[in-house]
Amino acid sequence: MVVSAISIVAVILCIIALGILLARLGWLGEKESALLAKLTTKVALPLMVVSNMYKYFTHDSLVQNASGIAVSMLSIAGLILLGLPVARLARVPANRRGVFISMFAFSNSVFIGVPVSTALFGEEAVGFALLYYIANTSIFWSVANSMIISDAKGKFDVIAGGREVRTQPRAFFARVLPLPLIAFLVCAVLIYLRIPLPEFVLDAAGYVGNMVTPLSLIYTGAVLMRMIRMGRFQWHWDYIVVVLGRFFLAPAAILGISLLFPTIPMLMRSALIVQASMPVMANIAIVAGSEGADSGYAAGGMVLTTILTAAFLPLLMMAMEAGWF
């Protein structure tokens, strides 16, 4: 299992390295990277949500596993609320707090989490693992997306002389209901009502949606290369807090909240704990870049926690063998 997990981490780092190389060769400049970010967030991500929802969920599974979704949502919401004062205590600059809280609260629940859960518990755990994906996706696009936007486009812009002017707020639906969230809500309603989509539509959505992970990681590599060139790639002490949030506080939150739901199966709880303890969500860097927030800061946190996953997984296995969850 450890070998499989390390292999997954190696794949991620290789794709990030490809992004670094393409940026180094001049193929991915700022304009190309901006196009990549828009293609991922506005096209590929919504279609990935459509594909995954219809691939892994039915009316019955949504209803029967509602408690798992509730536990996941409560834990993520708790981490967001905790992240607000923690960001101030850690002295995270105001223009990075949305990205910081997003890294603190949201995990890479699909590309790393699902394979790790499968390796640990078998195919039976995939459905349970994807319950966390539902919570992760819906709360990220309904809450964290707006927080990241606020990093770059808050109520006030500081201009020369310290004078402040109010900026025009984004349209309500563009901020609160981005396309991936709309796709999720529509699919959830359709699945609950047992309304199928044509097979060719789901196939097309799957093909395009499969681009999300490689495009996000290539973009992350391009951002890192740009930061290196500009001499802005640096260590931030609050990354330590992000690591604590990802690998310790997030699984502890699932464990604690799941005790309020005594009917949750042991396998479901274990799969959710594994999902919660995965590294920083890969989409945070690309959303930060597309919205004008600090994508370099997000990319650094994502790469750091991904590398540390290889070291953390043996500890996770030891905790499981000790019967901690």
Describe this structure in words.
It is a single chain. The protein is an all-alpha fold and 325 residues long. Helices cover 74% and strands 2% of the residues. It has 15 helices and 2 strands. It has helices at residues 2-24, 30-56, 59-64, 66-89, 97-105, 113-121, 126-152, 172-176, 179-192, 199-209, 212-229, 239-258, 266-276, 283-291, 295-321; strands at residues 156-158, 164-166. Strands 1-2 form a two-stranded antiparallel sheet. Strand 1 (156-158) and strand 2 (164-166) form a beta hairpin. Helix 4 (66-89) runs parallel beside helix 7 and helix 7 (126-152) runs parallel beside helix 13. It is globular. The protein starts with a helix and ends with a helix. The model is unreliable at 154-174 (pLDDT under 50).
What's the topology here?
Layout: H1 2-24, H2 30-56, H3 59-64, H4 66-89, H5 97-105, H6 113-121, H7 126-152, E1 156-158, E2 164-166, H8 172-176, H9 179-192, H10 199-209, H11 212-229, H12 239-258, H13 266-276, H14 283-291, H15 295-321
Antiparallel strand pairs: 1-2
Helix pairs in contact: 1-11, 1-15, 2-9, 2-10, 2-11, 2-14, 4-5, 4-7, 4-12, 5-7, 5-12, 6-13, 7-9, 7-13, 7-14, 11-14, 11-15, 12-13, 12-15, 14-15
Largest beta-sheet details: 2 strands, antiparallel
What is the string of helix and strand elements?
HHHHHHHEEHHHHHHHH
Number of strands: 2
| Low-confidence spans | 154-174
Q: Span from first to last CA? A: 18 Å
Give me the secondary-structure category: mainly alpha
- Helix fraction bin: over 70%
Counting H and I runs of at least 4 residues, what is the number of helices?
Answer: 15
Query: In order across it, which strands form the biggest sheet?
Result: 1-2
Q: Radius of gyration over alpha carbons? A: 19 Å
